[in-house]
Design a protein that fits this description.
This protein is about 55% helix and about 0% strand. It is elongated. The chain has two domains: about 220 residues, Son of sevenless (SoS) protein, Chain S, domain 1 (Up-down Bundle); about 180 residues, Son of Sevenless (SoS) protein, Chain S, domain 2.
Length: about 575
């Protein structure tokens, strides 16, 4: 696998008070950010697309007009060009929340936002917004899907603070209620535990580690104080959810240890298979159809994709250890990173390399044309399954510089296959803000989708970089968290998250397509141990010269007449 320099570091916002981490060089072997180029980064021609990821205002969805958003439809007195100290906004004891004329939150201190979110935690109708039935509410690049305040905040909060700091603010909110009359005190304390309950119950945003410990400690301390039956019931519910979350994390750690002990590239086997002493037998190459391979690709990449959390996308952009990491053992922490955005990127790169390897490995021109037709059909099947991740990976390989040198191999393809190939490659076109890809995404967008993460990561980064995380209040200059920025970024984050139950949580080896998945894993391992990208380029040059010589000798015409040509 060929490492690529991507330069995806988040820039430091001057005057924000806290310097962003992760300013070191980036040498990650990723393919996810190849949204701005029409070819693999290892190709000499990859610079033909001029979009630069380090310029988030360019060719990104959030840099377009966002007047459709309820937040931008009403002017407000905050100047986004006046950044303030993020530390002051987080540590302020003042409970401040500012809204626009439509009632949408636009800024506030952390304490004020936690108070507001706690009041909303038990509700599912939020002021002026309608709740989303699933994460990906809109595939349009010119409109922002509306995410409720609670989910918007917890999608993005790891960009500017830690879960432990949020829990401390919840504790303060709970204890502030002691100064209130009885009805208001009970209501505010109930709300604090409703916030904890909703936060921990959501697997996409649930915290881990110290944050869970502090939540449990607060619940146990409160149980020790005589209180109403309703309050005790609420606390017991929160404790039960916290314990379930801890048990879930323990199981995840056990799986991580089991996976690391099997070694890289070795799929673990289920207990029933271990007891029976059997393993999954991969399909033979002759048994694999484009449709079966497309399903295997979707299940394999979908297994990585469904496990990604908002905090992992933020961590990937910031290039720092995630504050929500729950593992203490170094081996588990390393495996957790492999299961994040980086793991999906490595897998996507492996698919690109495998396709190029498969197309360039045969010596016979007709065999290469047959392999090319097979992968064109596979990519089309992936597109039909709305697996744009594998579709664009195969398309990247098919139009890479080494493969495009095989012009006479391509001439052997039927006309309908060439038209299909042209349509697949058009998805990679970065012009007009990836218009072709977004148009394909809008088709039946209510269906489960495995997106091309590169495009959506660029959108998310642009939303985070366009405005400062903290701004100054126009009246007193108080530092406030920029909630308008949080909401915009959350709308982009929603495009990166799978719809509920889109990809079932089950072991790949228990799938009815396990044999096809085993074949795919075997082929990926084989190609990784084969030729490097540099060797593939050299191989393409040799094959191209061979094709040119054969063409000059009119080999195809002689073969068509029945002559045996060497």
């Amino acid at each position: 696998m060929h490492p690529r320099q991507w330069n995806v570091r988040r820039r430091v916002s001057t005057g924000s008070g806290e310097k962003q981490k992760g300013d070191g060089p980036d040498s990650r072997p990723d393919s996810l950010m190849r949204a701005s180029t029409g070819s693999s980064s290892s190709d000499p021609r990859s610079s033909r697309s001029s979009s630069d990821y380090r310029s988030p205002h360019r060719n990104s969805a959030d840099s377009r007009s966002t007047t459709a958003s309820s937040r931008s439809s009403d002017s407000h007195p905050f100047d986004p060009c006046r950044p303030a100290s993020i530390t002051e906004a987080l540590e302020s004891s003042a409970s401040i929340v500012h809204r626009n004329s439509s009632g949408a939150i636009i800024a506030g201190t952390l304490h004020g936002l936690v108070r507001e979110l706690a009041a909303q935690a038990g509700e599912f109708q939020f002021l002026h917004r309608e709740p989303c039935t699933h994460y990906r509410c809109s595939a349009s690049s010119s409109t922002l899907p509306q995410i409720d305040d609670f989910r918007a905040f917890f999608f993005i909060y790891t960009d500017f603070t830690s879960p432990e700091r949020i829990v401390i603010s919840v504790e303060r909110h709970f204890h502030d209620a002691d100064a209130l009359p009885a009805p208001e005190r009970l209501d505010q304390q109930h709300n604090a535990f409703r916030l904890i309950l909703r936060w921990v119950q959501d697997p996409q945003i649930a915290p881990a580690g110290i944050a869970l410990d502090r939540m449990a400690a607060l619940a146990k301390r409160t149980l020790a104080i005589p209180g109403s039956a309703n309050m005790r019931d609420q606390i017991n519910k929160a404790l039960n959810v916290i314990e379930q979350r801890r048990a879930s994390l323990t199981r995840t750690q056990d799986v991580a240890v089991d996976t690391s002990s099997t070694g890289p590239g070795r799929p673990s086997t289920s207990k029933s298979q271990q007891s029976a002493g059997t393993s999954i037998k991969p399909l033979r190459a002759s048994e694999v159809t484009p449709g079966e391979l497309a399903i295997a690709l979707t299940l394999l990449e979908g297994d990585r994709y469904r496990a990604l959390k908002p905090s992992e996308y933020i961590q990937y952009l910031r290039q720092r250890p995630g504050s929500t990491a729950s593992s203490t053992a170094s081996v588990i922490e390393a495996d957790r990173k492999k299961r994040g955005v980086q793991a999906l990127s490595i897998l996507n790169n492996d698919i690109i390399h495998w396709v190029k390897f498969s197309l360039l490995d045969p010596d016979d021109e007709e065999a290469r044309a047959s392999a090319m037709l097979f992968f064109i059909n596979t990519a089309q099947e992936c597109r039909r399954l709305r697996n744009f991740s594998s579709t664009t990976a195969i398309a990247n390989a098919l139009q890479s510089a080494p493969v495009e040198r095989l012009q006479y191999t391509r001439q052997r393809l039927p006309a309908n296959a060439l038209r299909t190939l042209e349509g697949l490659i058009s998805l990679l076109d970065p012009s007009s803000n990836h218009r072709a890809y977004r148009a394909a995404l809008r088709e039946s967008h209510d269906q489960p989708t495995l997106p091309w993460l590169a495009v959506h990561l660029r959108d998310l980064n642009a939303s985070l970089e366009r405005f400062p995380p903290a701004i100054s209040a126009p009246t007193d200059g108080h530092a406030l968290l920029n909630f308008d920025r949080i909401a915009r970024a959350a709308a982009r984050m929603a495009d990166l998250l799978p719809e509920p139950s889109a990809f079932p949580d089950r072991r790949l080896q228990d799938s009815p397509h396990a044999a096809a998945i085993a074949y795919l894993k075997r082929e990926l391992r084989h190609s990784a141990r084969g030729r490097s990208n540099e060797e593939l380029i050299e191989r393409a040059a040799v094959l191209s010269e061979s094709e040119e010589l054969a063409h000059r000798a009119r080999k195809r015409e002689l073969e068509g007449l029945g002559f045996r040509v060497r």
